[in-house]
Amino acid sequence: MRILPGFEPFSFQGKGDEGVLLIHGFTGSTTSIREWGEYLAKSGYHVESPRLSGHGTRWQDVNRYRVEDWLLDVEDAYHLLKSRVRTMYVAGLSMGGLLALAMAEEHPEIKAIVLVNHALEFYPHPLLPLVPILRFVLPSVPAISSDIKDPNIREIAYDRTPVNGVYQVRRLQKMVSERLSQITQPLLIFKSREDHVLPVSNVEKTISRVSSSVKEVIWLENSYHVATQDYDKHIIFERSVEFLKRIGGHHG
């Protein structure tokens, strides 16, 4: 199976014994978080970033998979990373952030969580309640990709949004939401003030329901949804490393 350029999984070697599982978003690619991963690796962290099932081939393939497949993808990457580090962190963009929360719920040994514009809930839409039925008759809708303020950057992502994929994300949202109170790890959330894909209400809904004693929010003033490729990306890179070093101890 040929994987489209930009969707390939990546793995970076760090210098110490700490690792970050880094997860891309729905219909997106690992390119959206690759520069972040490179920055983490240069800062001493081992990094593992899987390609989620159905991504990197054609959009129709996303409709063939379920949320359980995506959870297996990140679980496999987690164990691969865990085999070479002692301390684990998890981070993600959009649905990748939702999967990061799911991993933190499942693995309390994960030491901290970093989210960028995570997909706890969608914007209200009259068709959303119909998605469980629509997915059988409507394969896709227009794309939600490349919500980037910088006009010189284009996200590598599918040009259609698979409807059964949306249904699976909704299932994941419900699964994660029901267990949010189980999360006790330190949590850092980056949120764009202007995000045309996911609402800012996701921040308060997450912060108010997790049981973490450390809960921090950094607002991004000059980026849209794919902030890891936008004007504020270096804020994400630098502040996430500062946060992880504060939680885990400075690298020698």
TrEMBL record:
Q: Does the keyword Hydrolase apply?
A: yes
Q: Where is the Serine aminopeptidase S33 domain?
A: 19-228
What keywords are assigned to this protein? Hydrolase
Q: Which Pfam families match?
A: Hydrolase_4
Give me the segments passing through the membrane.
none
Binding of substrate: at which residues? Answer: 26, 95
Q: Output this protein's name.
A: Alpha/beta fold hydrolase
Species name for this entry? Answer: Thermospira aquatica
